[in-house]
Each structure stands twice: as C-alpha cells, then as structure tokens.
Amino acid sequence: MKHSFITTKTDSHFPIQNLPYGIFQIKGQSPRVGTAIGDYVLDLSVIDKAGLLDGTGAEAKNIFSATSLNRFMALRRPVWSAVRSKLQYLLDADTPDIRDNSALRSKGFHLMEDVEMLLPAEIGDYTDFYASKEHATNVGIMFRGKENALMPNWTHLPVGYHGRASSVVISGTDIHRPQGQMKPVDVSLPVFGPCLQLDFELEMGWFIGPGNEMGQPVSIKNAEDQIFGLVLVNDWSARDIQAWEYQPLGPFLAKNFATSISPWVVPLDALEPFRTAGPKQDPAPLPYLQTTKASAFDINLEVSLQGEGMAVPHRITISNFRYLYWSMAQQIAHHTVGGCNLRPGDLLASGTISGPEKESRGSLLELTWRGTEPIHMENEEKRVWLEDGDQLTITGWCQGEGYRVGFGEVTSRVLPVEHHHQTKQLIHPYIKK
Amino acid sequence: MKHSFITTKTDSHFPIQNLPYGIFQIKGQSPRVGTAIGDYVLDLSVIDKAGLLDGTGAEAKNIFSATSLNRFMALRRPVWSAVRSKLQYLLDADTPDIRDNSALRSKGFHLMEDVEMLLPAEIGDYTDFYASKEHATNVGIMFRGKENALMPNWTHLPVGYHGRASSVVISGTDIHRPQGQMKPVDVSLPVFGPCLQLDFELEMGWFIGPGNEMGQPVSIKNAEDQIFGLVLVNDWSARDIQAWEYQPLGPFLAKNFATSISPWVVPLDALEPFRTAGPKQDPAPLPYLQTTKASAFDINLEVSLQGEGMAVPHRITISNFRYLYWSMAQQIAHHTVGGCNLRPGDLLASGTISGPEKESRGSLLELTWRGTEPIHMENEEKRVWLEDGDQLTITGWCQGEGYRVGFGEVTSRVLPVEHHHQTKQLIHPYIKK
C-alpha cells in the first residue's frame, strides 16, 4: 500500500490514495488550487512553479494559480490522471523531491486549520436529480399513497430539474431560515412567514469536466469521462413552501435559498477501487441509458445533527451512495440526450439518497415521516424539522483496507430569519381563517 | 420630438428614443458594446475612448470594450440613466460632437448588416415564470379540464422554475429538433425518438442589474431597479417529452435543449412612456407582492412562421406584454423573498404570453388546441407542431406618436435531428405495443 511522507491515521479522509482538489485561501492572498494530504493542504501553484508537474499537460498554464478549478476541469481525463499520478509520486514516502526540500515544503504546505476553503468552481448550471428509488417511493407514499407511490416515468428515466447555481455555497456558510408563502391545511388562504418545515437533503454531487457542445449528446459509454470529481451536497429544502408552490413546474423557492457543498472534490480515479454494481434495474432502461459497466460506488454516508442545547452531534442517518437506482453515467446521458450542453464546472447532484432501512433515510421528511414520528436524541432533544441553531453535518468516505478515501464534511448552522425581515415570532402574520 | 442626425423611418425599431444595448462583433475583432440607431450600430467603446461618456460614471472603466454587458449591468440605474441621456444628447440632430466629426463617425458607426450580434450577457442563472393567466388557463383546461384549469396557488404567487442557462442562444442560431423519451397514449411503454410535438413559446425576458446578496430579499418597491432591460424570448418546448417527464419536478429536457433571445437589450427607461396598468389582481396578493404603481408595459408582440415551401412568413399570433397577470416587479420580489440571490446578467423570463383572444395565444399548444385545430397558412400549408425547416420569428415594439421603440426580432430555423443521432425517419424505433 502507498504511503506518504506526510503521515496519516488510518481513519484520515485524506491519505495519498485520495488527493482531492479544492480552492483555498490564506488571509490576504489570492485563492489558488490545493490538494489535501493528511492535515495539510499542498499548494499546487507552488509545486507547478517549481516545475514538478512538468509533463502532465497541465503545467505552466496558470491552472493551479486560478481562483476556481474550472480551467483544470476543462482539460480531459488523461491530463487529470497524469496530474494525479505525479502527485502520488511526489508525495510518496520514497520520493525526495518535496520530502527533502525544506524551502519547498515550508512554501507549499499549510495546516488545513490555517486556510479558508472556497467554492471549488464557478458553477454555470446546477442540476438536481431524484435518483434514489427509496426516496422517491417514501415521498410518493406520503403524498399520494402506497398504490401510486412512484410516478409512471420514474423507473424509465432519471427524473431531474434545474436548480439555482447562484446560491450554492461552501461548507461552513450558515443558512438563514427562509420566509415564504405556504398554505397550512387548516386555513383557506395562503400565508406568508418563516418556513416551519425546514429540512436537509443528503446528496452527492459531481462536477462536469470538458462538457459537450449544444446538440451533441454524451453517450452513456463516454459519460464518466465528463466526471471530474465528487462532493457532498446538502440541498436545503423548505417543505411547507414546496408543498404549496411546486405544481405544476416543480420546486422553486423551496430549494433556491441555499445548497451547501463540501470543499474537496474527490477525483473519480480515487473512487475506482470502490466501484460496484448498482441496484438491478427492472424494467430495463431504453438503449441510450443501458450499460453493462458497474456504475455505482461504495461510499458510506452519515448525517448528524447538533442542537444548541446538545454537547455532541447525534447521528441521524447512515446511508450509502451505492443505493442510488440511477447511476451518474445514466444521469449525464439522459441530461444531454436532447442536446442540452454541459460546461466545465457545472454541478449535477443525485437528489436525496435514501437506503432500504429506516435509519438510511436522507431527509427529515422521511426520517420523521412528514413530521409524525419525531427523532429522539440525547438530552431529551427531539426534532421533526430543523430548528434555529441546529448544526447539520454530512460526511462520507470509502473504506479501503487500512485506509479511507474521504470527502471531509459539509456542515452548516441554521440561523433565524434575517433580522430586518423577521417577524416578531415564528407566527404567520397574515393568517385569515 | 427628439430626432437624430441618423435619420430613421417612423417604423424603425431603433430611433433615438430607444438606444438599446448589445454585444456586436466585426469579423476578426474582439466583441464590444454597441447601441442601435436606425440601421447602424454605434461602437460605444469608440465613443468612450473619445471621452464623450465622461461624467456618466461608466467612463474609462473598460465597460464598453467588454465582451458582455455584465459589468455595465452591475452598475446601478443612475449610471445607466446618465449613459442613456448622454447618448441621446450625442446622437441628437443638433449636437455636433459626433455628427461633424467624420473620423469618429467612420470609426464608430457600422451598418447592422455588417456586424454579428452575440449574446448580450454571460447568464449566470435563467429563471422562467408562468405569469400569463390566459396561458395557464388554456394549458390547465387542456390537461385537467375547465373546472380545475388553474392550480390553487396560481392567483397567489407567480409560479416559476429554474431553466437552463447554458443553452440560451442568440437570435439566428438554428435549433436542432431534440430527441428524447416520451410515451404516446396508445403504447404501454415509453419510446425514444425525435420530438414530434415541437413548439415555440412567445415570451419576454429581462436582465438583472446589480442583484442582491443571498438572504437579502428585494422588496417590490425596489424591484424595478434590478431591471437593466428587456429582450424577446422564444422558449422552445418539446411537448411530448414534457408530458412524460414533468411530474413531479417540472420540465427538464423538454425545455433545456434551447432558448433563443433577441440581441438588443431595451433599457427600462426607454419603455417608461409605455408603462400602463396590468390586469386587476383578484384575490389581492399578499403584502410582499403588493404595489400601487402601474407595472405593466404596452409592448405589441407578433409571431410569424415560414415553412420551407412558403414565399413569405405567415403571422400566427398577435399579443401584448401588458396581458401578463404578474408584473416583472412581482416576479423579482417573489424570486428573492426566500433569500435567493440574483446576480448581474441573470435572465428572468415571463413564460408564454397569451392574450384573451384566440389569435393572441403564444404557443402552438394553445393555437392548435393540443394539435386538434391546425393553423391554415398560404399555399395550403398547415401546422399543428413545428416542422423541420420552419423559420419562427418573434418581434415586438412599443408604438409612440410618430416613432417606435422596438426589440428587433428573435428568429431561428428548425433543423432536423442532428445527423449522427438521427434515426432514419421520424419514427419511434423502440415502440413496443
């Protein structure tokens, strides 16, 4: 097994087997591209300037001194793989180039805790899918009953919709509870006020690499070449706003106030050892969605919640990325089959990932069965929806033999409605019965 | 009435009363910002370099030598108004600065037919609304019957959804017929093939100026200060793909293959003489959507269609922007009320604009009543949906006394399915009855 001269514990998310990319900033300096190794960030612009990335095809192009990964993403897989191989070589315990160069080491390495992580890409478009059969079934049962749980289209195509790119934010950004219009069942007219059914959604997302021209679909065979890497995603949702607004054109304000992502983009190459078969698809999809290649990935996912009155976070969900019915490759092939173009830096996300067990449900909507079964946590705290002050954290990792390839975490705190819009209490001011 | 030394006919779309902004390119040169006057484009980077925009607040900032209007849009209304006043002064028949400077004239003016128009902005996010009551009612009757035509939420909020920014293209870009998955009523399983119900949608769009911070809603009172200017929009739609995919998350592939816009962005200031009251709103909207200001604009809209076998275009729709039930200001206030941030260059569109008359319907879906009442044109041509080779053109203008403030046009031709994906004929290859 590979080892780095930067030693890492066996449960570190960032051993030499991972090497994710991110945009980091040291106070007062311009943001640039780094990779994570153990507790450190390695500044790739320093490594590039030292000539150590020569021959990869990405060298000396200001790719690594850029303030986003878009230009690196726009290159193709052979270049990504060459950079990754070179970095694994340079960080290897047996390679002296950086290990024995103290000037380079002190210039290139920063403790993670000393840097700020920024959004990894300028996201042109953000698309969210609905690819978990368990999630779609749970939601369907709640809203339409057991007989009509899945819409007729669901097993034939990966249902998706366009989300809001402007409000995708990096882990650590606190989220204000949104206000909006909703219609409680017991009143005849809609009301305006703070969302009372604030929820998270456990998702994963992937950044698009080279992209495709308009009118030139990406075949399922080539779809994975579009995947630069993956992140954790929390697609915040306002369930009461959503229930009132979503027909017939889908969710809008219920989702566009915020979407949080983790900062480190884990390359698809780092996930290869964890490739596995996804769920059997029955009925067989149409030919443009068919592949014999194993297209799922075994990524452990956990969600934890910590209320203001709680000493430690409480784990509320244990799930896995491989539960997804529709693969990333299928989602990309479907997205582009009508000619829609993807661009470098576009973000596609899976939709809520729920598994077959009750504890593997990826949203409070499902965990509390639309608010009817509260979650009980320590200190007699319980939840049906998110409360102000709650810290919601998603983490994920692949378990190798003696090492992990991890995603770090995406974490955010729920703040009250912004003060200057805040109504005096959590009441609905315009209720007319 | 103001006159320019560039003479214009009374039906010109671009007299001195208009002065829209666009991005133009002369072959071999870098794109830059221009305004339209009569049959000419005036290069504003030339005017700026000559010092003629000094004092406007936009001068000498490379605003007009930029390849998009985003940086100009990011400035605020006082600067936009100052630039507009200065241009109206400089182009006035009585102002000698440009009129009598032959070097400046020959450097600054280009015949419209000699330049290529490009997308006016880098569009971060594109949002489409559903703001015409007549359109929503027509569609509702067709899909759900007369009693349940409008969804309960429709009269309480401007329904909207996020569209695809990457596939917004400029007028003149031909559009390939998309392929996709659909389920004809007479078969039990979905099929894949070319869209057989290709449609246009008559819309108008507006570009966002300064934008707002996440979590900081734009009040209805300040909403119009976010509107830099307006364009014509054709939101191409694949009705058969839409019918099968849209539940429960809204349209996706049915819309994201292309959206066409006109190249000249008409400033809101140019539309002020045509401001008028919109339709009476009953029930009264919630307070965050209430305004006493007249918020509609009297903009004549026409759609024409020319098949390959037709000598001239046939006008199929006569409508007006003022028919819209929800105003632009209401759409902006609603969009941001939950905290969603808008950014300079974001595009918001109205959704299909249909009027009260049969001939004022803004889509073939409505004009042919879901394909049951063909449109009859000259040469015995008729249409239920768009055919390959059809040229679809939307135009629009405000009628002043002796002048027009016009939008030019958005025009595109329908091309067959891209060759390398094309099935041999317009058949569905995977039909299983």
UniProtKB/TrEMBL annotation, chains A, B:
Swiss-Prot/TrEMBL keywords: Calcium, Hydrolase, Magnesium, Metal-binding, Phenylalanine catabolism, Tyrosine catabolism
Domain of life: Bacteria
SUPFAM superfamilies hit by this protein: FAH, Fumarylacetoacetate hydrolase, FAH, N-terminal domain
Binding positions for Ca(2+) per the UniProt entry: D128, E201, E203, D235
Gene3D superfamilies: Fumarylacetoacetase, N-terminal domain, Fumarylacetoacetase-like, C-terminal domain
EC number: 3.7.1.2
Annotated binding of substrate, by residue: Y130, R144, Q242, Y246, T352
Domain (Fumarylacetoacetase-like C-terminal) ranges: 126-414
GO MF term (any one): fumarylacetoacetase activity
Cofactor dependence: Mg(2+); Ca(2+)
Coiled coil: none
Active site: H135 (proton acceptor)
Swiss-Prot/TrEMBL GO biological process terms: homogentisate catabolic process; L-phenylalanine catabolic process; L-tyrosine catabolic process
Binding site for Mg(2+): D235, K255, T259
Ranges where the Fumarylacetoacetase N-terminal domain occurs: 17-120
Family affiliation: Belongs to the FAH family.
NCBIfam families: fum_ac_acetase
PANTHER family given in the database record: FUMARYLACETOACETASE
UniProt name for this protein: fumarylacetoacetase
Species lineage: Bacteria, Bacillati, Bacillota, Bacilli, Bacillales
